[in-house]
Amino acid sequence: MLNSLSGRLLILTTIFVMLAEVLIFVPSIARFREDYMLNRLERAQIASLALLADDMLDPALEDELLKNAEVFNVVLRRNEVRQLMLSSDMPQSISQTYDLRDATAVVLIRDAMIRLISPKNEVIRVIGAPVREAGLLIEITMQSGPLRMAMIDYGMRILILSAVISVFTAVLLFLAMRALLLKPIARVVGHMERYAQSPEDASRIIEPEASVTELRAAEVALRSLQTDLTQALKQKERLAQLGSAVSKISHDMRNMLTTAQLFTDRIETSEDPIVKRMAPKLVGSITRAVHLCESTLAFGKAEEPGPTLTVIPLSQIAEDVIEGEKFASGEDAIAFKCDVPATMMVRADPEQLFRVLSNLVRNARQALSGTAEGGEITLRAVESDAAWQIEVVDDGPGLPAKARAHLFTPFQGGARKGGSGLGLAIAAELVRGHGGTLELCGSDENGTTFRVTLPKGGSIS
Question: Which residues cross the membrane (predicted)?
């Protein structure tokens, strides 16, 4: 109970209400003390008026008047003359004098607290103004013991009433908070528990019903989160199934390509000049295809190997990429340009870097193939003290808005109809493995530019 939100709310409400009552108690007890002494002054004034009406009062009657007023002496100042109106024997001398005529709230509170904690029964003098302007001042002497007991009795009644009010207020607030807040929170928690049992079930997604603005906002946010998670889980399941299928296909494809690789060994022995010129390209393409199948199988097992970094001439990889895409372009009016310095050496995995640049150039070629006028693709590179920057630039129509929004997301960032978006996602992952970045520098009706940045991280040896 104490660890629950409702239990703590009940306890805190009771404590805070009691604290508020205590803060009210201090000035209340001071006001009670002031009223008590003013009441004694009024009684004493009434007794003194009886004496003024009859100068000769019986001593027994005078003593009765003093006892009724609960004072020892009454002094009344009228017309600048100070007169001892009534008097009796005092058990002890006067210890304190209190003037109520000009007392401030701070003084009254201070004197009340001192009197409340002081157990001594002392004789005190109280000075006040007579009611109805019946003189300049009235002064009495009285005992402090009855005053203190009356203050304690009043204080106890205040505290008991405060406790009752605190508990009553806490219970009402608890019931209100339970209906307005705790039950809706319990409902949200229940929805979360049911959804956690089967997050793929869209029927378990919460529907906002709370009337409290903040709780409804929380329910709306939870619904959005559950919807996204359910979709992500479904996509993950589809990707897992696709990955299993791709792994099986890659396994069979690797076997077929390995057989084709054996035949290329025979082709290389041909004396035909055209075959001799084309054979190395064919061997290189088949070798890369075999490596790709092996990498796909490793990725399907969550064992994608990291890049094997070596120092390689970038121009050779760039020319291989462009040469392969030239053959793929066929009769399309697409021009390819390689602007990579022949002496530029980069530290990278040659197979993975080839895949990155091949994906980028292929995407550019496919974008230009969809236009009647064709265009130009440029692969260029620059070097700085910190990194190598490789750019693939085309003058095509630019990427669609949807492709830019999900550029490196598999199955969502396809730039053409029927495209899966895997090429850019794979390229970005391979570049990240090198510690670099792949970014879209710009894409509009004038063309598209992708930039690969590979950090140096040391000198080239």
Answer: 6-30, 158-181
The distance from CA 155 to its chain's CA centroid, rounded to whole angstroms, is: 47
Question: Three-state SS for 174?
Answer: helix
Is the alpha carbon torsion for 43, 49, 50, 51 positive or negative? positive
Between residues 92 and 335, the one the model is more confident about: 335
Provide the pLDDT confidence category of residue 382 given band limits of 50, 70 and 90. very high
pTM: 0.43
C-alpha 98/C-alpha 112 separation (Å) is 11
Per residue in 430-446, pLDDT tens? 899 899 999 999 888 88
Residue for token pair 């040896």: 461
Three-state secondary-structure class, residue 6: helix
Arithmetic mean of pLDDT over the chain:
79
Structure tokens at 131: 């009611």
Q: Which of 255, 327, 320 is nearest to 294 (CA)?
A: 255
CA proximity to 49, closest of 138, 125, 127:
138
> What helix, strand, coil percent values describe the chain, rounded to 5?
60, 15, 25
d(CA 138, CA 153): 27
Q: Is 23 helix (H, G, I), strand (E, B) or coil?
A: helix
From the CB of residue 365, how many other CB atoms can be counted at a distance below 10 Å?
A: 21
* Domains recognised in the chain with CATH numbers: 5-171 (no CATH), 306-455 (3.30.565.10)
Tell me, what amino acid is at 68? N
pLDDT tens-digit map of 405-426: 777 776 554 555 444 456 788 8
- Residue 141: name the closest of 159, 154, 127, 155 by CA: 127
Task: Report the pLDDT value the prediction gives residue 305, as an integer from 0 to 100.
Answer: 63
Distance of CA 11 to the CA centre of its chain: 27
Rg (alpha carbons) of the chain, rounded to whole number: 49
CA distance 436 to 453: 5
Residue 418 buriedness (CB in 10 A; 0-12 / 13-18 / 19+): exposed
Pair 413, 429: CB distance under 8 Å: no
CA distance 65 to 70: 9
pLDDT digits (tens, 9 = 90+) for 265-288: 666 666 777 766 777 767 667 776
What's residue 343's pLDDT? 93
